[in-house]
Amino acid sequence: MYPFFKHTQYLHSTLSHCSTLLDHCLSHKSSNFLNIVHAHFLKLGLNSYTYLGNRCIDLYTEFGNINDALKVFDDISYKNSTSWNICLKGLFKSGQVGKACYMFDEMPVRDVVSWNTMISGYASCGFSSHALGVFVEMQGAGVRPSGFTFSILTSLVSSSCRAKEVHGMMIRSGMELSNVVIGNSLIAMYGKFDLVDYCFGVILSMKQLDFISWNSLIWACHRAGRQELALEQFCCMKAAELLPDEFTCSTLMSVCSNLRDLEKGKQVFAFCFKVGFVYNSIVSSAAIDLFSKCNRLEDAVRLFEEQEQWDSALCNSMISCYARHDLGEDALQLFMPTLRKNIRPTKYTVSCLLSSVSIFLPVEVGNQIHALVHKFGFESDSVVTNSLVDMYAKFGFIDNALNIFNEIKTKDLVSWNTIMMGLSYNGKVCVTMDLFEELRREGMPPDRITLAAVLLACNYGNLVDEGIKIFSQMEMEFGVKPEEEHYSYVVEMLCRAGNLKEAVDIVEKMPYKTTTDIWRSILSACAVSGDLQDIEVVATKIMERAPQISLPYLVLAQVYQMSGRWESAVRVRKAMENRGSKEFIGCSWVGIKNHVYTFESNQLQHYGGKDIYLLLNLLVWEMETECGV
């Protein structure tokens, strides 16, 4: 017996030494050293031992050498479930989903770890439906899910109903829901669907809360739009003597941004500065967004310039900040260096750039960004495609906008609203009305923007009967309460059709405080009709609401002059001067080499534009000659 014990003792010592060598491979993260150790095992004939083989497989997959891991797997004489599971995990990690499925089918015994590996592997590779299918198969095989199984499922559910079903299955399976890990996964799941009350229900059932629990709860409140409640949870977190981390601070910054509460945002920012979070890119990008939304552009720029290193989150926030403040050129000047630094833009960054282009920069810049959309693979993203449709529509290239809209495979309501509003502004009344009917056939309920686009089309197309019918059906048939813009379009439509009495009746029945824009439409219609009494009534209403606007004074003065009431005309003009009424000065802009030059009325003369006017007159003369006028 002595030689046997001696051999066993020697083998145990050898295996212990080999395990130490493998520990060195892991601590030094050296795949070359692992190859040397593996060669040593082969030389000593230790490659067939299960324990050492499993360690080698685990390390090879950790270093990304899946082929070497498979060779070790083949050499193991007795493969236990750990051997199969580690190899299965490594195949998914390397993206070899097909081989992983084949190995799973060949496994002699599948334990709960095997099933979890398949579910998490499918989920990590983006095959959520396959992962859920494996879970169903797992239940059919009679394997009891573990807490890890359910934590994976909570990240896969795609609806609030499914979320509640998973929660119910956890209860029926006897899961310890007071466990902090399971509780946190449930809070994150319910928070994804804005079910804040369910999040609090989970919190109340948990025996212990960590900072992840509070972060998930604060994020859930913020996502659901309950910003004040999110701040209250932060106070509770501090009362529990748990320190916030970078994620907490970035979420709180976003909460303050949505509230437009600069003072509270400054307090959060001061804390970040104190504990050293201010140079974390996620926190800094949230702070830039806060300053931007609170109209503190200088602070946002200063914080961005203080950052030592750029990354995607930081640059995208600053580009969005410039775009939000109508600084399209600055946004582009920052965007170009980020491309050279291989910093990938997000779909929201591209969308912000397209919005900037559509207002202030030439369409050629928009075409260049459109080309980048295909380069980065955003052409199927609804946020980007909707921005493209909006950009081309605002530039008047409505056919391009319509082509992009038609290529969108899955159209959401924003897509329909964007193209319909663009068509209406470009005078494509019939196409707008046809799309509205198509939208209704699709079974997608219109919202306030949809109906505003339709009413605008009726206004431009003089479709009075259709417009009145849709306006009267808004609340009863579509469940949309008319707002100021809807009233404005209908009133303008009636005024253009000469139905002044109906327009005034609608204005007087408005549940909102009437705006000066609506009365301007009526005043313009009254001026055309020439009814002095109506003009005086409407002009007086505009003067009461906005005395600084010169339009009602000018209209009244002109009507009085035409009627021979010179004293009244002088009195109105004097009143306009005394009240400091402002005239609207027309302006235009032109883009030259990515720069926008703005000119107010007659301002071109100050830039030495006399020759330009002479040239324009010459061009007009040539056009008249060609047309035979």
TrEMBL record:
Recorded superkingdom: Eukaryota
Tagged with keyword Lyase: no
GO MF, one example: RNA binding
Coiled coil region boundaries: none
Cited InterPro entries: PPR_At4g14850-like_plant (IPR046960), PPR_rpt (IPR002885), TPR-like_helical_dom_sf (IPR011990)
SUPFAM superfamilies given in the database record: TPR-like
Keywords for the protein's UniProt record, in alphabetical order: Repeat
GO biological process, alphabetically ordered: RNA modification
PPR repeats: 111-145, 210-244, 311-345, 412-446
Annotated NCBIfam families: PPR
Protein name according to UniProt: PPR containing plant-like protein
Taxonomic placement: Eukaryota, Viridiplantae, Streptophyta, Embryophyta, Tracheophyta
Annotated gene: 25489739
